């Protein structure tokens, strides 16, 4: 079996020869540190991104089979994005900057990959929506033809016949279709507080924004599928939960966002994509049943966090319809081999449930030691080989 076949077999509860050892990428600062230590080259640190040829090289050096986040990304968000500009420079060297989503953020010198503090949001009312946002969220074919198209050592490209790359039965790597974000990007544009107020102050506009984004995502997915390109799974991104739960009312999410999930998952199902995964950080428990009811069946990256997220309670509650990729506590990479062995032991009964592939529960952070990550990969191959 190759990596593609064994991954799909695990998630479909079919026999497989060994468990794939996968990851979810790295912080840029992590790669810079590893380059300074001589484990990778400076060029590899600079050129890495999910699914790139460099991604495959670094994966092989560490012992990972592949990056689960390798997928074709239609441009299902603001197009064109807002032009980044500095609106105020502060005495300490930081600056207030308008980012690509129309949000004013604080950018500090030498800041890490953490999300910057937010000061204000351009999208507050209907006037801003009409003037600056709605036209940026309309479907055009170039959103798909100019999507993110590189995967491993193959260059995926568009030609007159559509999306050209190796057909499904000749690929040995897993390749997904990214279906966009149905609320996470909206939360980014409005802010957590702004979204909460808008839902009450102007419910019609709140619904219109969700419906506009949902339609854009649907049309991008439809165009990618109709091109004849072959994908192995569908994938969404959200990040709409924190350590205590969702950043949106589950009732609102089910009523307003759920139908858009259902529409897209039914579409990808018509093209044989039966694995539909979703990337959402934080404590997602209250939203899991809504995703399951609307065709999403694989949770990712299952952040362990302070709340000890795990597929086990979801499996007990919802049965085998819920799969998972993730749930490995990435903090062990900053500790020692004993901690890594203990973490792998913790994962064993979860793997035995079936339909589950361990993966570091987010980007591997800068405190991760190269040798610890290599040891993790070696042990995963030994234990689950």
Structure description:
Residues 150-161 have low confidence and may be disordered. Helix 13 runs parallel beside helix 14 (370-384). The radius of gyration is 21 Å and the shape is globular. The chain is of the alpha/beta class. The chain is built from 14 helices and 19 strands.
Task: Supply database-style keywords.
4-stranded antiparallel sheet; 385 residues; alpha/beta; 7-stranded parallel sheet; 19 strands
| Global geometry | globular
Would you identify the regions where 5 or more consecutive residues have pLDDT less than 50?
A: 150-161
Coarse structural class: alpha/beta
Largest β sheet strand count, sense and barrel closure: 7 strands, parallel
Q: Give the end-to-end Cα distance, rounded to a whole number of Å.
A: 12 Å
Number of strands: 19
Summarize the structure in short:
With 385 residues, this protein is of the alpha/beta class. The chain contains 14 helices and 19 strands.
């Amino acid at each position: 079996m190759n990596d593609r076949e064994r991954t799909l077999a695990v998630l479909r509860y079919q026999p497989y020869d060994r468990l794939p050892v996968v990851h979810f990428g790295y912080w840029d600062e992590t790669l810079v540190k590893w380059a300074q230590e001589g484990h990778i080259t400076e060029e590899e640190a600079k050129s890495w991104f999910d699914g790139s040829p460099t991604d495959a090289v670094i994966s092989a050096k560490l012992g990972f089979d592949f990056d689960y986040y390798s997928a074709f990304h239609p441009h299902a968000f603001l197009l064109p994005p807002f032009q980044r500009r500095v609106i105020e420079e502060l005495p300490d060297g930081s600056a207030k900057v308008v980012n690509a989503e129309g949000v004013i953020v604080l950018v500090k010198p030498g800041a890490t990959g953490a999300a910057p503090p937010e000061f204000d949001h351009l999208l507050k009312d209907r006037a801003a929506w009409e003037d600056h946002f709605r036209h940026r969220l309309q479907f055009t074919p170039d959103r798909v033809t100019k999507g993110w198209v590189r995967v491993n050592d193959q260059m995926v490209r568009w030609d007159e016949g559509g999306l050209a790359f190796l057909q499904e039965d000749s690929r040995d790597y897993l390749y997904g279709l990214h279906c966009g974000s149905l609320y996470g990007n909206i939360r980014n544009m409005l802010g957590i507080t702004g979204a909460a107020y808008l839902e009450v102050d102007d419910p019609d506009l709140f619904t219109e924004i969700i419906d506009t984004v949902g339609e854009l995502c649907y049309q991008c997915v439809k165009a990618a599928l109709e091109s004849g390109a072959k994908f192995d799974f569908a994938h969404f991104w959200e990040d709409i939960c924190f350590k205590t739960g969702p950043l949106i009312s589950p009732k609102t999410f089910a009523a307003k966002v759920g139908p858009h999930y259902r529409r897209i998952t039914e579409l990808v199902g018509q093209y044989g994509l039966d694995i539909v995964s979703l990337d959402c950080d934080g404590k997602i428990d209250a939203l899991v049943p809504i995703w399951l009811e609307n065709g999403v069946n694989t949770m990712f990256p299952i952040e362990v966090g302070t709340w000890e997220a795990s597929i086990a309670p979801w499996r007990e509650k919802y049965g085998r319809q819920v799969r998972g990729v993730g749930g490995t506590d990435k903090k062990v990479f900053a500790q020692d081999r004993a901690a890594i062995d203990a973490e792998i032991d913790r994962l064993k009964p979860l793997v035995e449930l079936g339909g589950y592939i361990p993966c570091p529960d987010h980007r591997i952070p800068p405190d991760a030691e190269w040798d610890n990550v290599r040891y993790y990969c070696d042990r995963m191959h030994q234990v689950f080989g």
